[in-house]
Specification:
single chain, 314 residues, three-stranded mixed sheet, 12 strands, 10 helices
Amino acid sequence: MINPLLKKRIRLLAEKHNSKATTLSGQIKFRTKKKIKLAKSWPNAKIIDCKLHIQLDSAKSGDEIEIKKGSGYKLVALDFGFVSGKEKQDRLDEARRRNPRKKNIGCGSAKIYAENAVDREEEFRYKGKFSGYKGSYIYADYQSCAAISPSGITCCVIVGSSFVKRIKVPAGTRFAKDNLGIHVVRASDKMDFHFLPKILLDKDFCAQIRRGLVEKFKSNQKAKKAAKADTQFEKTFQRQIRSTYVSLEDSRRAGNCVEGSIAFAQRKFGSSREDIVGGQWLYTVPAVRVMATQDPRAVRAVRCAWQRETTISI
């Protein structure tokens, strides 16, 4: 389905180039024949391949679809791993028929464009007792992708160059893609939900997306509460350590060795070994000074000292 704004642009372009077509399909054919492009300076202009749009809009399950570069659609490669093994086996059988004298044949990787769906040969070297010999392996790459419409409302699934189905997202959401793959974005707060490609073929796709968005929202709220609690705890901790003092025993309970703690105190605070060993738990250092070193092991010692003093005060 073409959005109304795009329809208006196609009609205006057809009229500008003296087209006599009165229907949208006639205007699209005229635009395609004359190779007229939409002006990029127009606001929110989207250059799309109208032939591919019409083909996908009227396609039925099993129709052969060949996507070429420059279509304007958002395309995401879909691996055969999300469908049944029959499609994968059929693809391997076709590759074996094309290469009858070859035994090392395997299923390759998903490609977006049809021209990249070829038998790819890679050489390798044998190991063990056949070391020194070379061999080759043929990977049968295939076209398999999801074509997201310019509006983002629908998505067409193509498996092995065959059209499978058209999917519509729940109201208030849009299909999108990023470096992690295809996902759904909620329009109200831009919250995204990445799903497994295999659910594209499920009948209850919309229901699963709704449940996933609800779970994502709940987990986000839980994470926000945890982050807020951590922030409040950190503020309390930073305020209370002003009256906290760290001893050698606190450093030991934090997992630091005695000799390392003594060497650290000598280097950072100018303390002598006799004072530290002789003072035992009476020899302490202000927690603020210890925190200023920004040493992770020293910070652990400060937390142990704060817990000790907090427990005693309670």
